[in-house]
């Protein structure tokens, strides 16, 4: 079956990378052999979801591949991006993660009660992390990127600015920053970073993101943070491979927090895979509690999105020591930056979910979702509002 998006754009480009789904009864590795014999270069198989990524193939072969025995779906292997918005304005007062933004969700009250999230595995699918950053000491990390695309650039783990900022916000250790104050994540969850986006360029293919999601499921994730997305799903949410993977994780007890997107203020601008009904989709608010102008909104097309909102404007947190994040403070050469975006709001909620999972490990994913939605009446700009510890 051709994804509807691909079916209408099959000959838009002479070459196109693909992501195929395989009948479990046929076997991934058998089909890999068939494709290789056709001269097609492959990415590593994704056994969790019975998928294979194909490096760019001639458009004329797409229907041939679709007709192969065992191929159940053929998708375009599209790109998603890290969701960062707006450079930091030097005349703005920073919203410190330790003293302000984390406590909008009342994380400090959870800590006082002994619920820190320390038993919870929180996976961050992003640009990777700087594992030597003091806020991320002890975090586990790996990469799902199979084909390097930053050749010639001086990049390494310390260049992982966006992913480091996200991970530090969700579960960074308490640390006295070089700028003269403490920073701290929302939780003390056990961080596991899986790189699926380029460290500097900040984009990743669907196959790499889905591979990272499969690894998180196989390695025992309880919470997954995805501060990434694209403006729309290919072929609609039901056909989209990322949204289908979100559903699979949720059905296996994983809480998936996903950025709503930075395409506001218009209605019906929720991105993919944040549009998944199985995701906990997060919009951004500023320090006055107002929804950020850039935060994607719901509407008739997305009647129950976003689910919640959290601080996402001028969030000061740890970042890669060697690279300034696009859209961040241009003076952030010491491993910290103030960044805005629904990317920054999402790890606040992921960290909050880790606190809840520590307290209520027996909850189902539906129970967790209803719990974080308990903040008030729904509206398409802020969802059910900001989740707060005192509500539960």
UniProtKB/TrEMBL annotation:
The Gene Ontology terms for molecular function here are: serine-type endopeptidase activity
Mind listing the GO biological process terms from this record?
A: proteolysis
Q: Which UniProt keywords apply?
A: Hydrolase, Protease, Serine protease
Q: Which SUPFAM superfamilies match?
A: Subtilisin-like
Instruction: Give start and end of each Peptidase S8/S53 domain.
Output: 120-372
Q: Does the keyword Signal apply?
A: no
- What family does this chain come from, according to its entry? Belongs to the peptidase S8 family.
Write down what this protein is called.
Peptidase S8/S53 domain-containing protein
Source organism of this protein record: marine sediment metagenome
């Amino acid at each position: 079956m051709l994804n509807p998006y691909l079916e209408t754009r099959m000959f838009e480009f002479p070459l196109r990378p693909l992501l195929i789904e395989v009948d479990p009864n046929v076997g991934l590795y058998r089909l890999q052999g068939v494709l290789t014999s056709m001269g097609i270069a492959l990415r590593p198989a994704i056994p969790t979801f019975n998928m294979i990524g194909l490096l760019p193939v001639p458009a004329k072969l797409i229907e041939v591949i679709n007709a192969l025995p065992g191929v159940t779906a053929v998708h375009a292997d599209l790109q998603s991006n890290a969701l960062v918005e707006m450079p930091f304005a030097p005349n703005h007062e920073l919203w410190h993660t330790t003293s302000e933004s984390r406590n909008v969700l009342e994380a400090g009250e959870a800590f006082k009660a002994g619920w820190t999230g320390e038993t919870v595995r929180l996976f961050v699918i992003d640009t990777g992390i700087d594992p030597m950053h003091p806020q991320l000491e002890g975090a586990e990390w790996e990469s799902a990127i199979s084909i390097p695309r930053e050749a010639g650039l001086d990049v390494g783990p310390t260049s992982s600015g966006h992913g480091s900022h996200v991970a530090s916000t969700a579960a960074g250790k308490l640390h006295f920053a070089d700028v003269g104050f403490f920073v701290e994540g929302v939780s003390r969850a056990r961080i596991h970073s899986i790189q699926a986006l380029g460290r500097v360029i900040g984009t990743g293919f669907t196959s790499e993101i889905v591979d990272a999601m499969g690894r998180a499921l196989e390695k025992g994730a309880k919470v997954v943070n995805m501060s990434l997305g694209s403006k729309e799903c290919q072929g609609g949410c039901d056909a989209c491979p990322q949204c289908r993977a979100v559903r699979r994780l949720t059905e296996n007890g994983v809480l998936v927090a996903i950025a709503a997107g930075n395409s506001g203020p218009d209605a019906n601008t929720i991105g993919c895979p944040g549009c998944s009904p199985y995701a906990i989709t997060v919009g951004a608010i500023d320090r006055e509690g107002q929804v950020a102008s850039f935060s994607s909104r719901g509407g008739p097309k997305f009647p129950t999105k976003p689910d919640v909102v959290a601080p996402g404007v001028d969030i000061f947190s740890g970042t890669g020591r060697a690279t300034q994040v696009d859209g961040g403070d241009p003076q952030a050469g010491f491993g910290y930056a103030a960044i805005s975006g629904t990317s920054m709001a999402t790890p606040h909620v992921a960290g909050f979910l880790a606190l809840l999972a520590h307290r209520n490990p027996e909850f189902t994913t539906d129970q967790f979702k209803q719990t974080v939605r308990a903040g008030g009446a729904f509206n398409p700009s802020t969802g059910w509002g900001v989740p707060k510890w005192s509500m539960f």
